[in-house]
Amino acid sequence: MSEVDVSATGGERARSKGGSGSGARGRSAEPAAELPIARVLVDVSPHHLDRPFDYVVPSRFDTEAVPGCRVRVRFNGRLLDGFLLERVAESDYAGRLAWLQRVVSSEPVLVGELLELVRAVARRYAGTLNDVARLAVPPRHARVENEAVVAGPGEPPSPPESTSWSRYGHGAAFLRAVREGKPARAVWQALPDEDWSTRLAELAAAAAAERRSAILVVPDHRDLTRLTKSCAALLGDRGVVSLSSELGQAERYRRWLAVRRGNARIVVGTRAAMFAPVVPPVGLVVVWDDGDDQHLYPTAPYPHVRDVLTHRAHSAGAALLIGGFARTAEAEMLVESGWAGELVASRAEVRSATPRVTAIGEDDAQLAKDPTIRSARLPSIAFQAARQALRDGTPVLVQVPRRGYMPALGCAGCGERATCRKCAGPLAIPAGRSDVARPPSCRWCGAVEHAFRCVSCGNDRLRAIVIGAARTAEELGKAFGGVTVRTSGGNEVLDRVPAAPALVVATPGVEPVAADGYGAALLLDARAMLSRPELRAGEQALRRWFAAATLVRSAARGGRVVVLAESELPPVQALVRWDPSWYAARELAGRAELGYPPAKRVASVDGAPEAVNELLDGVELPGSGEILGPVPLGEVDVAGESERERALLRVDRAHGRLLADALYEAQVRRGRGSGGPVRVQLDPLEPI
After folding, report:
1. Contact at 8 Å (CB) between 177 and 210?
2. pTM higher than 0.70, yes or no?
3. Residue 146: what pLDDT?
4. What pLDDT digit, counting tens, does each position of 596-622 carry?
5. Rg from Cα positions in the chain
6. If both were cysteines, with which of 420, 537, 557, 593 could 425 make a disulfide (CB 3.0 to 4.6 Å apart)?
7. What is the CA angle 239-245-246, rounded to 5?
């Protein structure tokens, strides 16, 4: 039996739906009596092989070879794993077909709603079915699969009566819609003193009470631990399954199977949980803190939790909640388009729950008392706030940027971020050139800036500033003699600190919780965070500030937050006023004006110069499409032979599906390519 040429393209590819590889030579086998053809998704990566291949099902596998099961087939001379997608009566391929070699497991793991979700995600991100299937279905563990099936959760408990959702406009109505199984969609702006995990658990309990499934996704294991405890308190341990990459292979597969078999309807987890195979009907999907970078999968095709769950809620007719203390431009776009409503508390509720927030230079009195307030790293207002909190017997949180942040070019006079006059991208000094006096270039379009002049103050000089957490802790220890200094970051992360005087230096995202709230929070190097050469620098800085400020006592209890940045900056204004929706609307409008996500759909293509140009030559963009670059990335490829480049492709939002299809087809036509591999990513968090 001859093999099919799996590298065939064009018309040959269209007729090569038939399987490849030799059959079971030397064996006497009969095809299954009914539906003898299996269409198998073979575990191969290239786009030009992204299609099911037909194989003959031997009669001995007739009962085991069910749609969604794992199989092994011979493909291009090798035995490879695959998923049996469906069985049909006849094949479209006119040649001889190879035999199905083995049914690895008859457990249907890729079928129904999960298979349709995998297909939809692959198409949205110009990826292959195999790429998404690897993310959606965990590796098999035979012993776990053969374990006795555990009994389900039984009768779901009645959801508790909750009045806390009434603090938000339309909050009670949203809870009622979840209980009634309506496809309500909302963006939730949580108050700083909110027990957000309990609120989400109440929504999950409302869905479970009517025997509907719920999926709740959080960024990291600290949030996951908190949410799991809240859900278990309302639904019991048997009614909730927690999924995360922290689990071992056996335990992860055990819990995943429990969800697929219907033993638990409530799934909480990190990003992998967005593919949880819950039993229909799905009543609720939730993503908490959608601006966190960890919601983006770092492997192809790089799906984002928010986008996947948005699609899942729409296709399943489920309720959707995007919640957080801050708001992203993407969430704001859903609100402004009318696709989702918003759950926001009144200004009176906000004022009663927030700490007092102070920025530098708010009034002339500050400048008169401390003339160095704009240049000092720890001016007098910060010292005063810290000393008062320590005298009151409370800890002080000191937030500093993570070590390893890339130096950002900014104005040497006022500190404003340096941007390109052509496309508003960040200016940077290429690798190997450390002299900031030499002309910088744009990291997006590659244009060289020979005559920089700050749009705010007219200064023509640039600078880059980065200060680490270790040095900050050392400086504070000297300034506050006799006060305990604790650090949280890197490999040493604190979960909680006692309600006692101490200075707690933490990097963003790992701030420990104080037993009775912090008396003050100092947000250091705020200007450096805003000056990072990224599209989302302001949004990310504000999200991290809000996260730290929510750990501080309310103003009525003496809580105070000092942000060391000028009060006139929009992100600082949003923090002072505690108005994330205002800043999100402003950010969305700015990106629409500049033509960047989410107002437009953008894709990045990077690789060796020959590979990038080869793919770009094969892309057929829609009418609104344009290409920026390519520009060098300042790094070499895996082989260390050539410098990598990146090009950006962007189209109007309405043509986003056309862009994904065009990139997919270009990768199919390119095949393995002569210039080496390329990385294609749609909707990157940072298109640089």
Report:
1. no
2. yes
3. 87
4. 899 999 999 999 899 999 999 999 999
5. 28
6. 420
7. 85
